[in-house]
Amino acid sequence: MAALRIAALGPLRAWRGERQLDTGPAQQRAVLTSLTLRCGQVASTDELVRDVWGAEPPASAHVAVRNHVSRLRTVLESESGAPKALVSVAGGYALHLPDGALDVSQAESLYARAQAARSQGDLEPAVRLLTEAEALWEGTPLTGVPGPYAQRQRDRLVEYRLRLVEARLTLELQLGGHARVVGELLTLADEHPLREELRALQMLALYRCGRQADALAGYTAARRHLAAELGVDPGPELVRLHQRILEADPTLAPPPDVAAASPAPGPAAGPDRPSWVPPAQAPPDVPDFTGRREESRQVRDALAGAVRTDVTAPVICVIHGMGGVGKTALAVHAAHAVREQFPDGQLYVDLRGAGREHADPYEVQELFLRAMGVLAGNVPRGREARTALYRSRMADRRLLLLLDNAADTEQVSPLLPGTAGSAVLITSRTALMCLPATTRTALEPFSESEALDLLERMAGSGRCRQEQQTARDLVQACGMLPLAVRVVGARLVARPRWTLATLAERLSDRSQRLGELEAGSLAVESVFQLGYSTLDDAEARAFRLLAIPEMPDLSPAAAAAVLRCDRREAEELLESLAHHGLLEPGEPGRYRYHDLLRLFARHRTLDTDPSTTRQAALSRVARFYLTGTSSAMRAERPYSRLPDTADPDGLPGTAAFTDARHAQEWVLHELPAMLAVAGQILHHPYRPVSAEDTRTLSGLLALLMPFTDFRLPWDAIHQLAHTLLRAADHHGERLATVFSCVAAAAACAQVGHHEEAAALAARAHETLDPADRALAPRVVYTMGVVAGARPDGLDAAIAHYRNAHALSCESGEPGMAAQCSVSLAHAQLALGRPYQALEAARDALAHCPPGDSPVGLALAQRVLGDALTQLGRYEEAVTEYGTALAVCREHGLHAQRAHTLLALASVLAAVGRPDQARTCAAEGGAALAQLGDPTGEERARAFINRLAAAGPSDLQEQRTAARTEQ
Question: Is the pTM of this model over 0.85?
Answer without folding.
Answer: no
